[in-house]
Known about the structure:
This protein is of the alpha+beta class and 131 residues long. 44% of the residues lie in helices and 22% in strands.
Amino acid sequence: xxxxxxxxxxxxxxxxxxxxxxxxFVRNKSGLIYPFRYIYKLREATPEDEAQVSVLFVVPKRNIxxxxxxxxLKRRMREAYRTQKLPIVARATEQGKHLxxxxxxxxxxxxxxxxxxxxxxxxxxxxxxxx
Length: 131
């Protein structure tokens, strides 16, 4: 993988499509690390999978009313995930698994990037241990 592409976040790495998102929220493992609730689904990788890990970022309108704030938080979440994703992708690849991961922002405050990065790092470590 090229150096500049390794840290990217392609569309194939994002969880999209109604059926895939719905399947993530039905009877799967979850946890809570402030300020996130995370849900993940682990399955065997198939040849159709373009990425080993697919991730979904959610900032509910109920918690953050203005779209500007929701978009800011999603940008921060994507950046924090993108810079820390290599260990989880490598683990999923070596185990031959595919991971769907949903990160849901749960607080009503707009937190700084370092707090978000530390929380996502903790989530990724915890989920990597479960693979």
